[in-house]
Amino acid sequence: MISQTNKVIAQTRHWLENVVIGLNFCPFAKPVFEQDKIHYQVSDAQSLECCLEDLMAETERLDKHSEIETSLLIFESSLQDFDNFLDVLDIADDLMIEQGYEGIYQLASFHPDYCFSDSEVDDPANYTNRAPYPIFHLLREQSIESALAHFNNPENIPRANIQLARELGHTKMQSLLETAKKLNKD
Questions:
Q1: Which of 1, 51, 74, 134 has the most CB within a 10 Å radius?
Q2: Which pLDDT belongs to residue 72?
Q3: Structurally, how many domains does the chain consist of?
Q4: 136: β partners
Q5: Which residues does 34 contact at the CB level (< 8 Å), separation at least 6?
Q6: Contact call for residues 15 and 180 (beta carbons, < 8 A)
Q7: Domain hosting residue 170, numbered range
């Protein structure tokens, strides 16, 4: 029988492969995914302190393992409220700077209820940052710089993603996310 942690990872991998890579929301994700250079860490943290400890554990993992290109810290049962998630993300960003990781790692984020500040809740564009679970995504700054150096007009990526999500529509985008959430459910 598959463990709950493995289910969460499988759901996240499915979303990554079929939404982020499948829709080319991140043109840099496919090689890292195919080369198995992504670490998936499921957190059972229930307090702010534990969420931040788990984040720091991931920075230490990346410090020690150069073969890992990026890490996804997946919060299975905490940070479900989007506003609370954003508050914790702000604290996490500050902690990363305080711990000397500015310029070394970048912290990106995904959430099942992600909503851009200037959009409506049902705007399909929000699905460019929606995932099956709240996720802190740690990326190596050096890798980002290398990828961007070989990509024409990277500043157009977010606009193209928003356009594609809106063309596909809310129903299709919601379906893609729901499919990942239903994967491996008993």
A1: 134
A2: 98
A3: 1
A4: 73, 109
A5: none
A6: yes
A7: 4-182
